[in-house]
Structures are given as C-alpha cells and as structure tokens.
Design goal:
about 350 residues, alpha+beta, Immunoglobulin-like, 10 helices, about 25% helix, elongated, disordered N terminus
C-alpha cells in the first residue's frame, strides 16, 4: 500500500505532569489569566499548555487548581502563540479544553463548565484575529494573513508551513513586518528560509554539522567518498518509524559500511523524545540532530516539505535522487543505491 508523506497529521497529547514550573517572571512582559467558570467544581487541575503546530507538539507551562469557580495564572511568556487550557477531572475521567491566542497580556476568561470550549476570551487582540481566521474558508486564509501581516498571530500562522509558499510571497510578507517581529525567533527563521539557497538534484552537497546521541560532532563531509543516504524524520512521523524499522534496517545490513552509509537526521525538539524513538526503531546507523525541530536551518537548505524525505548522494558528493514519503511496496531506494555502488 502506498504511504503518502506525513505532513498534516497532528497529534497533541496532554498528559498529567507533576511539579510543572511556571515561567520565570521579570519586571515586565508579564501575563495574567483570570477565569470565572460557572459550575466549575473545586480542586480540579487546570493546565496551561503551548501548542506548536509546526513541530506537532505541545508543552505544559503552568498548572493550578480551581477554587470557588475561579482560577488564575501569572507569569512571563517567552513567545506569544496558540495555547490551550485544559480542565482535568481525574475522578470522573473528564477533560475540558479551550484554545486561544495570547502574549504577555491581561486575559479574562468567562464561561460555563458544560460549554467550556466556547468560553469568552477577553484581552488578546491576537485571539480576535485567530477567531476570524478560523471562520474563513481554507482558500481565503492565506489572503487574510497577508492583509493583516504586522502581528504575532499572522507571522506564527504563516510559519506553521512556510515551505508551501513561494519565496517571493514570503519576501513580500517579511517586508511588511516591523523591526520587533523581524528580530523575533519566527522572524529570524522566516528570513533564513528566504535567504537560504536550497540544494537540488545535480548539486554538490553543502556541508553541515550536528550531534549524535552521545554528543559527538558529526559532519556530512566525514563520509565523503561513500554513497550516502540522508533521511529526515521525527518522532511524530508515523511512516518515518515504519521506514526506519523495515527498509532502512534492511539497507543498513545489506551494504558494506566502507561503501555506503545511512544518516538519519532527527527534526525533533527534545533530546529525550529523539532518544526514545531511536531506541524504539532500533537505529544503529549514523543518527544525528541539532534538536531544533522544523525551525532548523537544514529544513530550508534541503527544502523539506514533508516527512519522511530522503536524499541519495553519490561517491563524488553529488545529490542524485530525492525520495518523498515511504512506499513499502517498492524497493526504488535499493535499486538506486545498487546503481551507484556498482558504478
């Protein structure tokens, strides 16, 4: 059966964590969230999490308990973005959630426990844009972002999947940003995508450096003279795991290590997740990462649009083939490697 590239499947797992630490506060750029929810029982756990669409993940940033139908959070938010509030009733195994956009602002949330997902959010201009955006038809969403460019919401939404937008369009959007947004993490990443010249078939590889799980530095040029298969993957990519456990395991055993090498480059954001999935997939070939997720400059260098994606490099360092997705019913990668090994 044909496996299409894993692009838009996003699974957010909100798990209970003990001793969740609040963000470090300073004298400015603080946020506060004050919630008043009818029919909210006392002593229910309420978790505030950041949602990272681009890296298909969520991170718990604070937690509290409900008292007399109310709850509150205070802290410093390093990066504005989409967040979720989850009410966890462990006794009855019930969870309620509401998503909203905010930065370091004073947020008021009013609602009813039975309809918590439709609570009213007050105090976040970005969330007003987010609500309008959600109501649009898919074909109108990008146009909306370009008509409302100079804000964190539009920049962050554009950066969810910038690879599918032309560089000319990205340049136009970037030109409309103020200095603060251009200097933000997402602004810098966007500029890197715009200014990076992506490699293509027929090009000589451009060297890069990353770390293996033991912290050793590994360069692509370390394997010059060999046939190289470099694959990009991440823990959230189902077909990446399938390919690791079947096709790549087979290829790694078949070929002489003096002639051929597989390099798996993880686009995860947490080393512990990368290490866990590497062990689960029994990866015993070259396995490296810079733990920067889809914001890693290498994404722009290789013009990655989906995962898994692999590149075949010949003994002279020339990129000769690229493979998108994973197809368990053919052995096209093996055939192409055989051609290069037997040349």
């Amino acid at each position: 059966m044909k496996k299409t590239p894993y692009l838009l499947l996003i699974i957010l797992i909100f798990s209970c964590k003990e001793n969740i630490k609040s963000p470090v506060e300073n004298s400015k750029n603080k946020y506060s969230i004050n919630g008043t929810i009818e029919n909210l029982k006392d002593s229910l756990t309420i978790v505030l999490s950041n949602i990272d669409w681009r890296n298909r993940s969520s991170n718990d940033i604070d937690s509290t308990y409900s008292i007399a139908g109310k709850f509150n959070f205070k802290g410093n938010l390093p990066n504005p973005g989409l967040h979720t509030l989850i009410i966890k009733d462990y006794k009855n195994m019930i969870g309620k959630a509401v998503n909203f956009w905010f930065a370091n602002e004073e947020i008021i949330i009013n609602g009813n426990y039975d309809d918590f997902e439709n609570s009213t959010i007050i105090g976040s201009p970005s969330n007003e844009l987010y609500k309008k955006y959600l109501k649009l038809e898919p074909k109108d969403k990008l146009d909306f972002i370009y008509k409302n460019p100079d804000n964190n919401f539009s920049l962050s939404t554009l950066m969810d999947n910038p690879e599918w937008i032309s560089k000319d369009s990205l340049k136009l959007f970037y030109s409309k940003l103020n200095t603060e947004l251009k200097n933000s993490k997402k602004g810098i990443t966007l500029n890197n995508i715009i200014t990076t010249e992506s490699i293509k078939i027929g090009d000589h590889f451009k060297d890069f450096e990353a770390l293996d799980l033991k912290g050793n530095k590994v360069k692509l040029s370390d394997f010059k003279g060999k046939v190289i298969l470099i694959d990009f993957w991440a823990i959230w990519c189902h077909f990446c795991h399938e390919q690791n456990q079947t096709e790549f395991t087979y290829l790694n055993k078949k070929y002489n290590k003096d002639e051929f090498v597989i390099i798996s480059y993880s686009l995860d954001t947490k080393k512990e997740l990368w290490e866990k999935s590497s062990k689960a997939d029994s990866i015993d070939w070259i396995n490296i990462s810079n733990i920067k997720g889809m914001n890693d400059p290498i994404v722009a260098l290789f013009d990655l649009k989906s995962l898994p994606q692999s590149f075949l490099i010949d003994k002279n360092g020339i990129i000769v083939k690229t493979f998108n997705g994973y197809n368990s019913e053919n052995n096209i990668i093996e055939q192409e490697i055989d051609k290069l090994i037997n040349k």
